[in-house]
């Protein structure tokens, strides 16, 4: 294991919650889908600096 | 930083995360099995996260050269801090597509695992939305490639294979290089800004410092003023002192980077 300088600042329940939230594949897909929709709504402005 | 990332179309993005290899010239033969990469060269893996200004927020050096990026991530203090609930901060909510979230994310390549912390591109873009997403994600993610282009240009010791006998010396050297690089970035922060749209500039640049690390030379006034942060890779000495094992890699993880010093204002 890596040497961690600071111990976890929360209890085991919070650690498990953070662990589960980090490894959540569904959240990953949902986040990417929302981000895709967000970019698509502004894609004209976002692509403008890269279009000659 | 979060506001500027939101302007670039990625609200909630913290930085770009990726790995690269630093060749180790004096790797011992008995350690070649662990440190030999798939390309045949022996070296250590460098995992870093940087923003548009090429400020290194996270650095993890010393993992075996034979390891995959996912395994290196799982060994880094960044991942440990996230899974322990210490990082990232949840006090900056952001809204995307009408949904408000509090967990920021990193932009990564497609080889990384499907974690909620990481946002990779669509592996098979079939729609125009997915293609646009992949295009913009790749544009933003190239900050990391710029970082190591600038880093090796400024410090040739990072360009050439490390000529040290121990991994600990490699780690110390790379930490020093990264710290100096962050000092460069901080000293020029008032004069550079890689974000072109925020400055109203174009790809032709034309700012005050057109010879900076911005690929197109876009250079205008920065958005973040100098602060008390003395470098993202400054105090990862405890893990670095452990030794050459991947767990002993130098790391300026979230606890190290953001705990002691004040982060730049968002």
Write up this protein.
Chain A is mostly helical. Chain A is built from three helices and no strands. With about 270 residues, chain B is of the alpha/beta class. Chain B folds into two domains: about 1-185 and about 235-260; about 190-225, no CATH class. Chain B contains eleven helices and eight strands. Chain B has helices at about 1-5, 30-35, 70-75, 75-85, 130-140, 145-155, 155-160, 165-185, 195-200, 235-240, 255-260, and strands at about 15-25, 45-50, 55-65, 95, 100, 105, 120, 250. Mean pLDDT of chain B is about 75; it is low at about 195-265. At the A-B interface, helix 1, helix 2 and helix 3 of A face helix 4, strand 7, helix 5 and helix 11 of B.
**What's the tally of helices of chain B?**
11
Looking at how many chains there are and whether they match, the oligomeric state comes to heterodimer
Helix/strand structural class of chain A: mainly alpha
Q: In angstroms, what separates the terminal alpha carbons of chain B?
A: 4 Å
Helicity level of chain B, as a percent range?
Answer: 25-40%
Briefly say what this structure is.
Chain A is mainly alpha-helical and 52 residues long. Chain A has helices at residues 12-22, 25-41, 43-47. Helices cover 33% and strands 15% of the residues of chain B.
Question: Notable features of this structure?
Answer:
heterodimer, A: 52 residues, mainly alpha, 3 helices, B: 266 residues, alpha/beta, six-stranded mixed β-sheet, 15% strand, globular, disordered C terminus
